[in-house]
Amino acid sequence: MNVLEVSTEKAIVRVNLGQRWTVAIIGVLAVCLMGGVAQAAASSCNDLAGKYAYHLTSAKSFSADAYNGADDDPGNLAGALSQSILRVGVFTIEQNCSVSSGRAISTNDTDTGTTRSIDLNFTGTITANSDGTATMVITFGSTNACSDMTVDPPSSAGACDFSGVKERYAVVLNRKAKTVDMIQTNNVGGGTKIFLTGAAQRRDP
């Protein structure tokens, strides 16, 4: 046992160096571990941060096939002015779990039979869980282009303004493969109960 003996004017103070060092080391380890947990919680998307390319296709619910006229339309086909059925694009996941630089190039069908190609910008957020599942919410911004694809050559289809429209996805984050599997969970704004599903693949190392 290491003992340091210190003389003072009134007493001799003995300090057990082994115990003091043990207590000091435990204290340092505790601080480091607590700091590590706090850092992991604050930056849960750190190892997923990067640029992604994605591809989404459509999946129909039962109600989308149940149209029997305006009085029997559980999927709201008559009320949905435009429905995205195919989509490709890119986005960036930031270390703080925000989604930036999003771009969506979508094939949309209208209730009058017109097919449009719509190029949109978006941003978003990811709320990650400890088991790798998460919720991803994107909000559309400006429209870069909107074209009528039922004519050749394609012509302008007007503004096609989707600014402020939100889409929600349940996602699974695969940190090892650097992929994000996505299924759409909301159908707001007169959708036809057709949902988007697919995956995003990280493009950079």
SSE blueprint and pairings:
Layout lengths: L2 E5 L4 E5 H26 L7 E11 L21 E12 L4 E13 L4 E14 L4 E16 L6 E2 L9 E9 L4 E6 L9 E9 L3
Antiparallel strand pairs: 1-2, 3-4, 3-11, 4-5, 5-6, 6-7, 7-8, 7-9, 9-10, 10-11
Provide structural commentary.
The chain has 205 residues and is mostly beta strands. The protein folds into 2 domains: 3-42; 47-202, Porin (Beta Barrel). Helix content is 13%, strand content 50%. The strands form 2 sheets. An 8-stranded antiparallel β-barrel has the order 3-4-5-6-7-9-10-11. A hairpin with a 4-residue loop joins strand 6 (115-128) and strand 7. The longest helix is centred in the N-terminal third of the chain and has 26 residues, at 17-42. The chain is globular.
List the defining traits of the structure above.
205 residues; mainly beta; Porin; 11 strands; 50% strand; disordered N terminus
Mean pLDDT: 76
CATH topology of the largest domain: Porin
Question: How much beta, percentage-wise?
Answer: over 45%
Q: How many strand segments?
A: 11
Number of structurally distinct domains? 2
Radius of gyration: 28 Å
Distance between the termini: 52 Å
Summarize it.
The chain is mostly beta strands and 205 residues long. The chain has one helix spanning 17-42; strands at 3-7, 12-16, 50-60, 82-93, 98-110, 115-128, 133-148, 155-156, 166-174, 179-184, 194-202.
